[in-house]
Structure formats: C-alpha cells, structure tokens
Amino acid sequence: MSRHELTVAPALARQVKRPRDPRIDAFRGLALLMIFFDHTPDNPYQYLTVRNIGFSDAAEAFFIMSGVAAGLAYSGRFLPEARKEKGLWHAVSPMWKRSWTLYLTQIFLTAMAIAIFAGGAVFFGLDTLLTQINLKQVFTNTEEALIGIPLLGHQLGYVNILPAYSVLLFVGPLAIFLGVRRPWHLLAASAALWFAAGIWRLNLPNYPNSGGWFFNPIAWQFIFVIGLLTGIFLHRGERLVPKSPWLFGLALGWLAMVLAWRYLPVFGPFMNHQMSLLAKAGLPFNITSHDKTFLAVPRLTHALALAYVLSCMGWVTRLTGTRALSFLRLLGRQGLLVFATGTILSLIGHVVYGAAEEARWVVWLYPLFGIFAMILAAWLGDIQKRGRRVAEAPPASSPRPAPATPPRAMAAE
C-alpha cells in the first residue's frame, strides 16, 4: 500500500457515517412527554414521570439529552482540520442560528400563554388564570412586563426552560472549542461555575419581578456541559465515563437510596435531618438542599446516576431501537416542534380542566389527545424535513467533480 493510501485510509474511515444512536432520540422524546404530563394539571399520567422515582425530573433529562445532541451535531465543525478548511464561522453560525430560533420560539410561546389564559378568563370566566404562572405583572404592570418579556427577564411558568437553553447554545461554541481540546479543563471550569453560582447566588436577573431566572443558566450549564462532553466523546466513538462495575453499583445504589429517601417514612425524615445538620455546619445550600433553580446536588446526582445506569445497559439500546418505540424516536428528532406543541397543549389543558371541572373523564382523555397531537406534529415535521433534504440534494445523474484537495488535506476531512 502506498504512502498516499495509508494517509487517506484513516480519513475514509472517519467519513463513514455512524448509525444514529436510538437512545438519544428515544429518551429526548420520553422527556418531552413527561414535561407535557407534568405541566398539564391534575392528570393521572403525572404519576408515570421520572420525578416520582427520585429528586430530578424531566427537565434534567432534557438538558442532558440536549447537550449530548449538541455535542454530536456541532463538535466536528470545531476540529482543527474542519476549521482550517471551512473557517470558524462555519462552526459557530449553526449554534447561534439555533439559539436565535429558540429565542423566537420562546417569544411565540409566551404570547400564546398570555392569549390562552386571557381567553380562558374572557370566554369561560376563569379569572384566576390571570394571576397564575406569573401573569399578574402582564395585566397589572403591562408596560414593564412588555419590556421584560423580549429581554427574557419576565418568564411565565411552564414557558421558562427555553431561555436557559438558548443562552447555553449561544455560549456553546466557546464550550465546544475548549471541550474538543481540553475536555477535563472544561468540566472543571463548569463545575467551578456551578459551585460559585450556589455560593454567591449568581443568576441572570428578572424584570420587572425581583430575583432571577427559574432555570438559572449559570447553574444548569453544568449538566448541559456534561451532556455536551458526552456528545463530543460519542462523536469520537468513545465514552466520557467508561463502564465500570463499581461505578455502576455506586450509581444504582444511589438511585435505590433516593427512592427510599422519598418513600420510606423513617428513612426520609432521617436523611432530611442530616441535610439540615450539614447546612447548619456551613455547607452551601446547593449541596444541602433540593433547590431546582441552582441545580442542587441531590437533583444533579440523581439525574447523572440515572443517565449512567441506563447508558451501561445494552438492552436499553436494543429496546429504544425497536419499532414499538419508533414514536419516541420521532418525537425526539423533532424536539423543538414537539416541545412547543406540548407546551401549548398543556396551557390549553389548564383552561379545559377549569371549564370542565365536573367532567372527571377529561383528565384521562385530554393527555391522550395531547400525545396524539404531539406525534402528529412530529410526523408532519419529519415529512417536511425529509422533503427539504430531497430538494436540496444534487441530482443523481450529476457527475461529482473530482476533489482538488491534496492528499494531506483529504486525510483531515
């Protein structure tokens, strides 16, 4: 074999497209369904979500999977060879474009939330809706609220997860730039920032309300970065955290302990008392509490332990790749569209449940209707995406021009 062939062979191996990991789309789709159930009031399906088995909920899963997807999708653009060939803007622009799309979606969902709850008050006499989900400022302090909404300072309940995600994608290029070169430096810096956020209560400000964002991006960046690094390593065909029997046992034991903490009548109060003693001893509150805004240690470690255990089980990969769960993978592939659809449906659910308070069958049927609508939206989105790809693809009969790239540059592609 010639020297040229030896140089090109590894490059061709790298160009082979790996099959899509079914776990990523399936678990992201499952997280979106759980968010819909948790945000739709008083429905029996809430007892099926992950928040019933531990301290974390679908939000942590959403950030982990979003980080993994970002690492897989964008990290290749930040490799030195790719930047040398196509430039830095080619790497940065898709992430900033996605961040802008998330921002626009946030504004749209906020407007829909105001309209839906106002419609419930006008047409069904549900005036209490006007004071829920942080809407009071919109109707009693309209001028300042309308300043805060586009600045992301005034966020409504159930419509407050995308701002943090948008901010994290905006600074994501810097994280990936460091992550592909010094992954453990990035992890250490992210952990230090999370710890500092808890110590000094660092957060982005609300306006016109006091306080900070419910999903504090300065704290939640830690779990996003862990997902991001996982995606970067998967892009290389590696694991961020290798499989280890003792680590698997430790994670599984922590999950069992958290379950006992939640439901055993003696053990739970005992553990809560120990946490209060640690707080009195001076440990930071993001270690000794269950605070969601600052992603306290019990929530963080529960989410990471669950993710690690599931990632080590081969049958999970096989199960998520089955035809029976193809609907979850479909939901995951169209994550933003499904999230927006589910958010609107959950907000409508507040009005429907209030207007049909006596009809208890509604709480059973409406979530099922919501699942159907989310799957339909994802299916239509998938059709549109495939159609766009076909339209953008070059004609099959068109001859491909011979690459003018020298062998060394070909190896870098």
UniProtKB/TrEMBL annotation:
<keyword id="KW-1133">Transmembrane helix</keyword>
<feature type="transmembrane region" description="Helical">
    <location>
        <begin position="361"/>
        <end position="380"/>
    </location>
</feature>
<feature type="transmembrane region" description="Helical">
    <location>
        <begin position="296"/>
        <end position="316"/>
    </location>
</feature>
<feature type="transmembrane region" description="Helical">
    <location>
        <begin position="214"/>
        <end position="234"/>
    </location>
</feature>
<feature type="transmembrane region" description="Helical">
    <location>
        <begin position="184"/>
        <end position="202"/>
    </location>
</feature>
<feature type="compositionally biased region" description="Pro residues">
    <location>
        <begin position="396"/>
        <end position="406"/>
    </location>
</feature>
<feature type="transmembrane region" description="Helical">
    <location>
        <begin position="61"/>
        <end position="79"/>
    </location>
</feature>
<dbReference type="InterPro" id="IPR014550">
    <property type="entry name" value="UCP028704_OpgC"/>
</dbReference>
<feature type="transmembrane region" description="Helical">
    <location>
        <begin position="156"/>
        <end position="177"/>
    </location>
</feature>
<feature type="region of interest" description="Disordered">
    <location>
        <begin position="390"/>
        <end position="413"/>
    </location>
</feature>
<feature type="transmembrane region" description="Helical">
    <location>
        <begin position="336"/>
        <end position="355"/>
    </location>
</feature>
<dbReference type="Pfam" id="PF10129">
    <property type="entry name" value="OpgC_C"/>
</dbReference>
<feature type="transmembrane region" description="Helical">
    <location>
        <begin position="100"/>
        <end position="126"/>
    </location>
</feature>
<keyword id="KW-0812">Transmembrane</keyword>
<feature type="transmembrane region" description="Helical">
    <location>
        <begin position="246"/>
        <end position="264"/>
    </location>
</feature>
<protein>
    <recommendedName>
        <fullName>OpgC protein</fullName>
    </recommendedName>
</protein>
<keyword id="KW-0472">Membrane</keyword>
